[in-house]
Amino acid sequence: MQMQKDIIHYPTLKTILAIEDVVKKANIPLSRNQILARLSTGVMRSTLNFALDYMEKRGLILETRKGFIWTFNPNKKLEKAEEDGLQV
To answer: What is the pTM for the complete model shown?
Structure first.
């Protein structure tokens, strides 16, 4: 509940799609500052943080020590391999 009080502005779908596009097209991991610099519209830092957290929870991106990278792969063969694979 505390996190909701700190959010000043929730991201719109347009903002989330813009952030997704920036991270997806990047060839290298991007920091939060690099993502903000590459966005064509102004986004508040708290809104960016909320959107990145949302995308990470959904498995679209991953935060590494070097920055955020795109990880989502809609490949059906990969999904099947994960389902049928041996669990260790």
So the answer is: 0.76
